[in-house]
Write a structure and sequence with these properties.
By secondary structure, this protein is of the alpha/beta class. About 35% of the residues lie in helices and about 10% in strands. The protein is built from six helices and five strands, in the order βαβαβαβαβαα. A five-stranded parallel β-sheet has the order 3-2-1-4-5, sandwiched between helices. It is globular, with a radius of gyration of 16 Å. The N and C termini lie far apart (about 45 Å).
């Protein structure tokens, strides 16, 4: 099959990239500049797609920043919260309607290219904080994808019931270069080790009882 993959350069979408590639699918990776705090993930996306020789496109809709306020990802006046994803403070990392916006862009690209599907790496660990990563949202978007054009496009979210640890385990099997991926919300020289996505990343490697190749500012 041919997929447009929403690709951030983060851990989850990198595992999905390798997963789909290993199954022989043709891929077009789509990254989005939406006015986010930093571009470290995009740098990672470029490097990994180049390594795999996967077609990669960066779509710039950075003016979205002007309407997406009150969250730590697009509003620089809001500090990035630290702690585990289950904490209430992590809701400050929610970008309103982000996945619906991204999926709409990816669906348009897939329809234009006459591709079979759109893939994205929503996973079970995100359900508590991110409404647009829940199975119910995926199901609703699948229905919308079937109705939005005469060309049928399948929405593929194979990790929606998986934990981050399970995704890391799959990535180990696929030999994903985790050291090239970027998760940290702060976007400095190293992963901070304290924001929600860093905490979850560290836990995922620990649960798999393997060394985490990530360089963190905050040591254990």
């Amino acid at each position: 099959m041919n997929y447009v993959l929403l690709y951030s350069g983060g851990l989850d979408s990198s595992v999905l990239l390798y997963d789909l590639k290993s199954k022989g699918h043709t891929l077009h990776a789509l990254s989005v500049v939406y006015g986010q705090r930093h571009s470290r993930e995009l740098e990672a996306a470029k490097a990994i797609c180049s390594r795999l020789e996967v077609s990669h496109q960066i779509l710039d809709v950075s003016s979205l920043r002007d309407v997406l306020s009150g969250n730590s990802q697009t509003d620089l006046s809001v500090e990035v919260p630290e702690g585990h994803y289950t904490e209430e403070s992590m809701k400050l990392t929610v970008v309103p309607n982000r996945n619906m916006i991204f999926l709409s862009l990816a669906l348009a690209a897939a329809i234009s290219k006459k591709f079979d599907g759109v893939a994205y790496a929503a996973h079970g660990g995100d359900h508590a904080i991110y409404p647009d990563c829940r199975p119910e949202f995926v199901e609703a978007m699948q229905k919308a994808a079937a109705l939005c054009d005469w060309h049928h496009v399948e929405l593929h979210a194979p990790y929606v019931q998986m934990s981050k640890a399970e995704i890391v385990k799959r990535g180990i099997q696929l030999d994903v270069p985790f050291d090239l991926t970027w998760s940290c919300y702060k976007g400095k020289g190293q992963h901070c080790g304290k924001c929600g996505t860093c905490v979850e990343r560290r836990e995922a490697f620990a649960l798999n009882q393997i060394d985490d190749p990530t360089s963190y500012e905050e040591k254990n």
